Amino acid sequence: MMRLAAAVIREFPYWAHRRQDPTLAGRAVVVGALPSARSGVLARSPEARALGVRLGATVVAARALAPEAVFLPPDPLLYKRETDALVKRLETLSPRVEASADGLYTLDLRGLDRLHPTEEAFAERVRSLLAEAGYPASVGVASTRYAASVAALHAAQMFDEPTSTTHSKLTRRTHAVPGIAVVPVATEAAFLAPLPLSYLPVREEMLEHLTLLGLATLGDLARLSAAAIEARFGGEGLRLHRLAAGEDPVPLSPAAQRATPRTAIDLDAPVALYEQFAFALKRLSDGLLDDLARRGLAAAELALTLVLDDGSRAVRSTRPTRPTLSPRLALDLLRLAVTREPLQAPVKGLILEAPDTTPARAEQLKLYTRRRGQPEAVEGALARLRALLGPEGAVAPRLADTHRPEHQVRWEPYPGLPDKPDKLPELRVKDVGGFRGRLLGRLKKVHPQAALPPGPAVPQLPARLYDPPRPVVVRVAAGAPRYLETPGLAGFVTEARGPHRLEGEWWGNRYARDYFEVAVGPAGRYWIFHERGGEGGWFLQGAYD
Predict the structure, then answer these.
(1) How far apart are the C-alpha atoms of 206 and 231, rounded to whole Å?
(2) How many CA atoms lie within 13 A of 274 on its CB side?
(3) How far, rounded to the nearest angstrom, does the alpha carbon of residue 430 sit from its chain's CA centroid?
């Protein structure tokens, strides 16, 4: 019979911050976001709780109740570090420990009866170990993960609040020690029955649906027909019904089983060139990817440690554009990572790890439609570019919501193909013509005092734009430019079309410009403008091919 112990650290984020900053002790602390945010309260100190701050309340409401409190934004990296450290501590008590959420840890008791005479003694040891690390915890013991976690939560509430009449008999049976609840074997359903539905790990919407059916306790839900619940609420409802009945088919997933995938090899003799250990690296890469595939994972990052002959180590990391199981791509990225920097000594050993993994993504192939393009080849090319040139080795243009020409397009790192490459739209002129259309629409206002020469009223946009625009010296006659001069370009204007007025952003960095399309002798045609606002002046915006 499996027996599990669940340790619950209530307000875990607060205790993690307090462990990092001991000066928070004795102060009202709220963890959620900045006071001006509308997000919910994630955790609070006992002092903030005494002031009426509730979990899930908006931080604005918490600020009204506790104006002098210290407000801290969530720090997921801190919580991850603290969780990993607590798992290592708990693994000194049991080799199988699962950290399923911030502040919830489940331990397997099988085979530990010789070390701990009673389950209560083991639970007390867990509490002591966590208390030594600065985390107050309650512990529940039961035959399923869910019952054990509920027992721990119930023990924490019984420790904080007076025992109700409904639970008095149950409390005497399960709470022999404050903060510890041991549910006897085969009594999980009876233990859960009187507890309210709020103990279910469920969305608020589902909880409302169950309440509308007249259900108030876990026992009420367990007494209903499983088939009826599944017919009404689907798989989610069937899962909740099983939990309420004391059943939990989900197996324990210890942290040790989720360790970083790793493989290593010692070379027969130290080698100095990549080509000399490329075959060994290929064996490592193929073996690691096979291991990940068996686990249903894909590599989001690969880290190669090269053990050098002088006793030192060199680490080379690489990240594909998206998680991959492709042996060819992985080997190419590792080769680029190794050859990017020279090694200080010959290599005598290799250690390959996948420190970051994600569930492998399956692709549904279509029977009657042809697959357009080769997304794997595109992803491989992007990954190789980034390995050679860095994270910004591949960029893509993005239209910005502005009419200022030099700001309408910005370059951003290309994120890669979408999850469904077959859904990519065909690249058509109309898809990218918004830039030209929006700009030309703004340029239709013509300066009323200028004498326009024959030609189109709306200018043709230049093929090349200068960002930022270049200052230029212009001589004007009769409201039109007649001569311009700038480094590398000088001459008389033989033809001028304009002005075409463009203005906007009155609410901030306002601009007001008169644009001209000019021909400067044999040098070519250019797009210039006169800035009517701010410091004024003439600028060269672009050139026509």
Answers:
(1) 15
(2) 14
(3) 34
pLDDT value at residue 452: 38
Residue identified by tokens 């020469």 is 453
Q: Which helix (H) or strand (E) holds 502?
A: strand 489-504
Identify residue 210 by its one-letter amino acid code: L
pLDDT of residue 48: 95
Torsion of CA 90, 91, 94, 99, to 10 degrees: 70
Q: Are strands 347-359 and 395-399 parallel, antiparallel or unpaired?
A: unpaired
pLDDT digits (tens, 9 = 90+) for 11-64: 999 999 999 999 999 999 999 865 444 458 999 999 999 999 998 888 888 889
The pTM (predicted TM-score) of the whole model is: 0.52
Phi, psi (rounded to 5 degrees) for 490: -160, 140
∠197-9-19 over CA atoms, to 5°? 150
Q: Find tokens 């393009």 and name the residue.
A: 373
Sheet with 347-359: list strands edge to edge: 262-271, 347-359, 297-308, 313-318
Q: CA angle at residue 34 from 33 to 40, to 5 degrees?
A: 40
Nearest to 236 by CA among 188, 202, 198, 213: 202
pLDDT of residue 451: 40
Question: DSSP secondary structure string, 213-244?
Answer: TT--BHHHHHTS-HHHHHHHHHHHHHHHHHHH
CB atoms within 10 A of CB 488: 7
Note whether 384 and 333 are within 8 A (CB). Answer: yes
Q: In this structure, which long-range contacts are made by residues 20-26, counting pairs with CB atoms below 8 Å and at least 24 apart in sequence? A: 20/78, 24/70
Q: What are the distances in angstroms from CA 248 to CA 5, 149, 240, 461? A: 14, 12, 10, 67
Q: Which residues, at least 6 apart from 209, have a Cβ–Cβ distance to it below 8 Å?
A: 233
Q: Which residues of the chain have pLDDT under 50?
A: 35-38, 161-173, 175, 419-457
Q: What is the per-residue pLDDT for 169?
A: 45
Whole-angstrom distance, CA of residue 241 vs CA of residue 237 = 6
State how far the alpha carbon of 351 is from the alpha carbons of 7, 270, 285, 314, in Å. Answer: 35, 15, 10, 10
Q: CA–CA separation, 539 vs 314, rounded Å?
A: 52
Q: For the chain, which domains are there?
A: 260-359 (3.30.1490.100), 366-442 (no CATH), 443-544 (no CATH)
- Cβ distance 26 to 55 under 8 Å? no
